[in-house]
Amino acid sequence: MPFGNAFGWPHLIVILVVILLLFGAPKLPGLAKSLGQSMRIFRKEVSTLKDEKAADERRSDVTVVEESAPVASSGSGANIPEPGPTPAQGAAAEPGSNSSQPKP
């Protein structure tokens, strides 16, 4: 059931008359003012969220570019050297020597 023509001019006039009867003529200007202020605040918040989302996307794009490592042009990266011993590990101990004593 399409709702494209659900509210025509006669329907809007009936709705406005009901609003006038419910709220009364003296309260309508205040009601319209508060409705306008609410819509202004809502639009401002929506635009702020859109701006923040765009800024987050720009920041995440920059972060991804900074974190990516250069890619080797050789293809699969099979020529990557093995890491050497760390300073804490030192060189491999020779057989028969006491590794706790410093070497001369």
Automatic annotation (TrEMBL):
Q: Which organism is it from?
A: Lysobacter korlensis
What spans are recorded as compositionally biased (Basic and acidic residues)? Answer: 49-61
Subunit description: The Tat system comprises two distinct complexes: a TatABC complex, containing multiple copies of TatA, TatB and TatC subunits, and a separate TatA complex, containing only TatA subunits. Substrates initially bind to the TatABC complex, which probably triggers association of the separate TatA complex to form the active translocon.
**The protein's name:** Sec-independent protein translocase protein TatA
Q: How does it sit in the membrane?
A: Single-pass membrane protein
Entry annotated with the keyword Aminoacyl-tRNA synthetase = no
The alphabetized UniProt keywords are: Cell membrane, Membrane, Protein transport, Translocation, Transmembrane, Transmembrane helix, Transport
Region named Disordered: 49-104
Q: Where in the cell is it found?
A: Cell membrane
Q: Which Gene3D superfamilies does the protein's record reference?
A: 1.20.5.3310
Positions of transmembrane segments: 6-25
- The reply to whether Cell membrane figures as a keyword in the UniProt entry is yes
- Family the UniProt entry places it in: Belongs to the TatA/E family.
| Coiled coil spans | none
Which NCBIfam families does the record associate with it? tatAE
Q: What does this protein do?
A: Part of the twin-arginine translocation (Tat) system that transports large folded proteins containing a characteristic twin-arginine motif in their signal peptide across membranes. TatA could form the protein-conducting channel of the Tat system.
Q: Which domain of life is it from?
A: Bacteria
